[in-house]
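Journal club side-thread
Mid-discussion, someone asked how the predicted structure for our own chain would compare to the paper's figures. Pasting it here so we can look after the session.
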Amino acid sequence: MAEQVDEEASRNEEEPSQGILPPFPGFGGDEEESPTIRHVPASRRESRELPKLDWDGGTLVLIGGACTPNGDALGSFLRISGALDGERIVGLTTASSQPAAAAHDWLEAFEGAGANNVEIPVVDRRDRAQDPKIAAMIRDARAIFLGGGDQVHLVSTIDGSRVGRALREAYQNGAVVCGTSAGAAALTETILAGGEPDEYGQMQEMHLGPGFGMLGFRAVIDTHFSQRRRLQRLFMVVAQNPDLMGLGIDEDTAMVVRGHLAEVVGQGSVTFVDGRGVRFDNAEECMLGKPLTLSYLRVGIVGSGYTFNLRERELEVLVQARASHEETEVIRGAGTERGADDRSA
């Protein structure tokens, strides 16, 4: 009987989502429901619509972790989503090793920031990710928050489930999706984990695997970037996978992504690593323990207030300058030869 349930669940997970699917055997219906931790204000204020966007889909707010409740990084999510005006936030703390405790912590943080209409279902295992009521809650949300912890656990628990499909549908329909730390790392097509010493000093094997795929452009995100000195790890990832674009986000710093443009907000900066022009690397030797050697690796830093073009892998101000094709004015005297504009420098 258990094998029959698993086979049917697997078949249903592969089908495209069309609204709320009928309950899986053993999931939803009269079975145990996922607990939800919520704080709804006594008098709900009028919610406002999301800002009009000139592209399809929603907005991503990717935070590098350790965000302060009243800081600009988390504040960008609250402002854009309308949460400060009463719009409901639906959160997931699945990445945490203690998701219920993390949910209470985030309720307190959101309340301190002025966002009181918050619900956080405790989706701590795979069967709860198949709960149709929780999927509907996510699908209907205009503001979705993913907390930190373990991005591999988050993706393996949620991806391909009803809740995972609802998360994608909400984003495609214009929701603002915010992730911090592991929650941000999980939103890319490819996630990064490991590749650094654990708390016992033992080197962890580097993990590259599929993420939720909401941020494309062959990007891979590393968080707590400057604070945990993760530049070398990102170099290694790009050396082994030169088509990837590494994005290292500092703590209490956010990338607000609309379409192919990402504005940096908060206390720190975002480091980008582009390996498409690399002429030499010894990535295979590094797998055997040798030091990394790279030539022509392209690295840049984007500070708060600047916008990064994900498609071009360049500062938007430079992309716009190239597009304008402005020529430098040359003032010439009366005796200048005709046709001087055609001379090579």
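Post-session note: The chain has a mean pLDDT of 86.
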